[in-house]
Amino acid sequence: MSPWKELIEYKNLSKLGFHETLTGGQCFGWNTTSDNSWIGSFSTKVVELRFENRTIFWRTSLTYPATSEEILEYLWVEKSYDDAINELPWRSDSVLAECIEALPGLRILKQSIDETLFYFLLSSAKSIPQIQAIGKLVFQKYGKKLFENIYSFPGWDRLAQIPERELRMLKLGYRAKYVAQTARFIASRQNWLESIMELKYADAKKQLLRLPGVGEKVADCTLLFGGNFLEAFPIDTWIEKSMEKRYNLNGWNTAQKLHFASMHFGKFAGLAQQFLFSAERLKVFKD
Q1: pTM of the entire structure?
Q2: Which among 10, 127, 172, 271 is least surrounded, fewest beta carbons within 10 Å?
Q3: Burial of 5 (0-12, 13-18, 19+ CB in 10 A)
Q4: Under CATH, what is the fold of the domain 5-77?
Q5: CATH 3.30.310.40 region(s) of the chain?
Q6: b/e string for 31-45 if b means 16 or more Cβ within 10 A?
Q7: Which CATH architecture has domain 113-215?
Q8: Where, residue-wise, is CATH 1.10.340.30 in the chain?
Q9: Pairing of strands 145-147, 150-151
Q10: Collapsing DSSP states into helix, strand and coil, what is residue 72?
């Protein structure tokens, strides 16, 4: 690894907000190396990050290196993040204000859509550590070794060559069918997944819903965390609870809740979702 360097001093970022960004369920490729450091990879670049005194430090693999500019972009350390926070309705929404106050600097990472789709196909009825463990088995067997205990996403073309029964042996269970079928679908359509990034949100979501095993939640997670569609608002059990308990939406169906989120939170609804999700998961609220 390269020597440690300072990446940026960031006064509106807390260790909890940073830790939750890397390990709180939007991404599954980061692991803690100490109380305030994490190692992981993105786009086959291996990076270790450290947070202390409101400052992010970094070092990178010499074989699969990243630049400081690439890390800043991946972490969404840009003025556009501050602008997005400013546009959210926290001034009139005490629930959202409490979340932002508890998790300063929580953000959406800029991940690749192919790997993000894979992980969220595994996510049904699985915890974060379980999703990580299954993903690691697949990456280790079919991907490329990048660093000690870090392997690359094999890619959909490679996954399309693997029989479903072989995937089942890697603890995918019934999800093996969805991964195998999705892999064949994507591999048979050149640049199909990448082309989704050029569409408007509603059209991109409609395309993803064509895939086996992809419902509303998986589609929205893939678009928010892997496609940078910041208006996407995934609804899982944590968000269901938050919508019903914090916003009195008991009895509302998913379509109605999505409409509420769009109207109330606006074009950065996905960022608001991440604050609500993490606040519920970490028991930020006192009830």
Answers
A1: 0.96
A2: 127
A3: exposed
A4: TATA-Binding Protein (3.30.310)
A5: 5-77
A6: eeeeeeebbbbbebb
A7: Orthogonal Bundle (1.10)
A8: 113-215
A9: antiparallel
A10: helix
